[in-house]
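hey can u check if this looks right to u? its 123 residues, i copy pasted from the old doc so theres a chance i mangled smth
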Amino acid sequence: MAQIDLHFLGKKAIGIPLRVAHLGAMAMLVGGRVLAPAHASLHSWQLLTAATGAALLVTEASHSRHWVYQGRGLMVLAHVALAGLVAFAGSGAAVAALVVGAVGSHLPRSVRWWSLRHRRVVE
């Protein structure tokens, strides 16, 4: 009988709802930026997007000590940088952050785990 990896299940039990919350908050923020309502009405969505994003960053970084210089870490850093520009650059930065986040999440494992430092895939 196959053994169940409880550590893995625990990470998934936290990561999946957190990712869903982040995607929902970012969708509201990006949609709000594109439709251009008053900025005050988006403040809650900005805070929720930032909070869930920070929590995701912590969970993702805990997967490997090499994370920050792997493809997955570099994509997250680009995503965070673009998200930080939303307040200044408007809807273009919001859409770019959404695209970079989506692409980074769906890259093949060989790209996500490729290490800039080691010049190869590192687990």
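Residues 6-121 form one domain.
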